[in-house]
Amino acid sequence: xxxxxxxxxxxxxxxxxxxxxxxxxxxxxxxxxxxxxxxxxxxxxxxxxxxxxxxxxxxxxxxxxxx
Length: 67
What we know:
Radius of gyration: 19 Å
Shape: elongated
Number of helices: 2
Strand content: under 5%
Number of strands: 0
């Protein structure tokens, strides 16, 4: 497992601490993992489409430059 260190705004950090403190999550790491997984679940298709569009645009620009 990889460790990632993040900086959070004070307000968001307080919300994280509150959710852990009230027992919604066992740790800050557990909450961050759950939030990231949910973000990816909701946005995976849009993110992949964006990456594909960027790749296609790059390939087309390379083709135009070589023509």
